[in-house]
């Protein structure tokens, strides 16, 4: 305004309208100058993004090259601004869809790659512990053939009717650096094969992944492809399986907690049998019947005849065992719940309030390992039951090794199992240490809160567990003449 007054006083021959025009013209040139500079910067970023998009849409680019370029793009987040991020993610997802071969792996049948990709897929398997190249080529919503034919006992599952009103379920899936396609296929299968009125929410908990593809692209996929009942949580530091599951459980609001691994496919009518049993018995901790998904061919291997339950070895490892004759006799039907001494731990369901009442997880354990036996012993010794539900089926990719790292390179399974032995196994812990002498004297942390919990709950002894829950378990120093190692004098072979 001051500029206009001075200018008009000096040049009285100009009308006031001409003064306004001059001022507006000057302001326009200043503004246009600034906008030109910003536009040039924006055009550089836009051109970079457009180049990536054109590259991804090019059919000349092999899928492995696409993956490499995608990781480069997503890692370099500075070239993706909020205005164009959605365009980039849509292009990436569209390129993923182009890679899918219609019909491949449908029905859960074994699938194979083209010859030129076999050697590459084998290299990738050394890192991922599964055939990720093949997984990326199979539909995220593939079908599974129904195993419940009239020639098998499982056919009776089709005749079961469930209550109209059942508890609601919070499905919790945790992951750390999981490959994207098996993770998304897990979520799609839960959404597609769960009655929506019973599926209250699905919570994805990211245990501090550093894979670029699990950042913005996953967030965009969840936001645009899944209903609002699917939530993505991220932890600010690497916490491990136990603490990550606890974070998911604290966030859950459904009546029942259902924990799944991030590389599963659930079967039709998988959820209702779990919810029905928990409605009938709130102190029952349940596991579905676990089918195997082959890590090389992604074949869904159906168990037509029978199933196994969980045991354990004195070295502190989970084992599969046949259903004992005594348990078969107790059950009034081949599809009735089967009591199981232990569980594998990756897939389970239990009433949410009972989860906290029974002691949730031991948060003094690190990363992974031993938590399944700890919960198994604790549930049985403290008044609950552990059961396998034959009419609930979930496929699981069993890997030959863990594709993620363990902080500090520690034997977390061994150290965690020491905590199990010290809190729950009483005098029988000696057998564990006989098999794992390397763990004698290891620092297993503070167990005082877990010991106090056991006393407060007046939990039963481990001897009671062995006599009443797992009487088939061989006990080395009972009813034997001797036990130990035998070696030859002239050789280093041990038996």
UniProtKB/TrEMBL annotation:
GO molecular function, one term: metal ion binding
Top-rank lineage group of the source organism: Eukaryota
Pathway stated in the Swiss-Prot or TrEMBL entry: Protein modification; protein glycosylation
Domain Glycosyltransferase 2-like: 170-347
GO BP terms: protein O-linked glycosylation
Pfam families the UniProt entry points to: Glycos_transf_2
Bilayer-crossing regions: 12-32
Sorted UniProt keywords: Disulfide bond, Glycosyltransferase, Golgi apparatus, Lectin, Manganese, Membrane, Metal-binding, Signal-anchor, Transferase, Transmembrane, Transmembrane helix
Entry membrane topology: Single-pass type II membrane protein
Keyword Transferase in record: yes
UniProt main location, coarse: Golgi
InterPro entries named in the record: GalNAc-T, Glyco_trans_2-like, Nucleotide-diphossugar_trans
Compartment(s) of residence: Golgi apparatus membrane
GO cellular component, one term: Golgi membrane
Cofactor(s) named in the record: Mn(2+)
Gene3D superfamilies: Spore Coat Polysaccharide Biosynthesis Protein SpsA, Chain A
Family: Belongs to the glycosyltransferase 2 family. GalNAc-T subfamily.
Entry protein name: Glycosyltransferase 2-like domain-containing protein
Organism: Timema bartmani
């Amino acid at each position: 305004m001051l500029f206009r007054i001075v200018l008009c006083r000096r040049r009285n021959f100009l009308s006031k309208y001409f003064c306004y025009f001059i001022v507006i013209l000057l302001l326009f040139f200043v503004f246009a100058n600034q906008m030109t500079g910003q536009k040039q910067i924006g055009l550089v970023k836009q051109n970079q993004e457009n180049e990536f998009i054109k590259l991804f849409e090019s059919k000349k680019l092999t899928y492995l090259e696409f993956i490499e370029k995608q990781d480069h793009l997503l890692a370099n987040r500075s070239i993706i601004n909020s205005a164009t991020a959605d365009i980039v993610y849509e292009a990436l997802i569209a390129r993923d869809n182009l890679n899918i071969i219609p019909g491949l792996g449908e029905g859960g049948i074994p699938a194979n790659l083209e010859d030129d990709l076999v050697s590459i897929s084998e290299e990738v398997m050394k890192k991922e512990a599964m055939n990720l190249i093949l997984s990326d080529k199979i539909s995220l919503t593939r079908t599974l053939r129904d195993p419940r034919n009239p020639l098998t006992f499982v056919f009776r599952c089709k005749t079961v009717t469930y209550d109209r009103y059942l508890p609601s379920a919070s499905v919790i899936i945790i992951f750390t650096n999981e490959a994207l396609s098996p993770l998304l296929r897990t979520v799609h299968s839960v959404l597609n094969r769960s009655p929506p009125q019973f599926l209250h929410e699905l919570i994805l908990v990211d245990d501090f992944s550093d894979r670029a593809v699990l950042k913005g692209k996953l967030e965009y996929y969840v936001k645009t492809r899944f209903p609002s009942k699917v939530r993505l949580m991220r932890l600010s530091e690497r916490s491990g399986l136990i603490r990550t599951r606890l974070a998911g459980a604290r966030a859950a609001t459904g009546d029942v907690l259902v924990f799944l691994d991030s590389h599963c496919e659930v079967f039709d009518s998988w959820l209702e049998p779990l919810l029905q049993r928990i409605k009938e018995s709130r102190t029952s901790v349940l596991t579905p019947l676990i089918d195997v998904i082959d890590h090389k061919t992604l074949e869904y291997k159906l168990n037509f005849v029978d199933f196994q339950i969980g045991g354990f070895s004195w070295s502190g490892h989970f084992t599969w065992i046949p259903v004992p004759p005594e348990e078969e006799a107790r059950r009034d039907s081949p599809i009735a719940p089967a009591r199981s001494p232990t569980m594998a731990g990756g897939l389970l369901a239990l009433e949410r309030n009972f989860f906290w009442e029974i002691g949730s997880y031991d948060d003094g354990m690190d990363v992974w390992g031993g938590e399944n036996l700890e919960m198994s012993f604790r549930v049985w010794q403290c008044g609950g039951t552990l059961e396998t539900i034959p009419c609930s089926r979930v496929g699981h990719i069993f890997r030959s090794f863990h594709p993620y790292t363990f902080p500090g390179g520690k034997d977390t399974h061994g150290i965690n199992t020491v905590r199990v032995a010290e809190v729950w196994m009483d005098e029988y812990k000696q057998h564990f240490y006989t098999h794992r002498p390397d763990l004698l004297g290891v620092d297993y942390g503070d167990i005082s809160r877990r010991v106090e919990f056991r006393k407060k709950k007046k939990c039963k002894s481990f001897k009671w567990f062995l006599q009443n829950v797992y009487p088939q378990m061989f006990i080395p120093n009972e009813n034997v003449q001797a036990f130990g190692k035998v070696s030859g004098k002239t050789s280093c072979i041990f038996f």
